[in-house]
Design goal:
70 residues, three-stranded antiparallel β-sheet, globular, alpha+beta
Length: 70
């Protein structure tokens, strides 16, 4: 299972601008919020393509750590 290009791009953006983007882990999804938004409501910029265990495994792979679902 590999992370798609958009997911990788957003992870890179979040890492490059930690004062701007926050990753939210909600019940059924993983989202990116823009904290520098002009809106009063939280501005959700991106929803990752996977969540839960799948997201954790893909994130581990992305940072170069072998992971396995058991």
């Amino acid at each position: 299972m590999r992370m798609n290009v958009a997911d990788r791009t957003w992870l890179d953006r979040c890492k490059a601008e930690p004062d701007r983007y926050v990753i939210l882990v909600a019940k059924g999804e993983v989202l990116v919020r823009d904290d520098k938004s002009d809106y009063e409501e939280p501005n959700v910029m991106y929803r990752f393509s996977c969540h839960g265990k799948e997201f954790a495994l893909m994130l581990l792979e992305y940072i170069g750590i072998a992971g396995e679902r058991v």
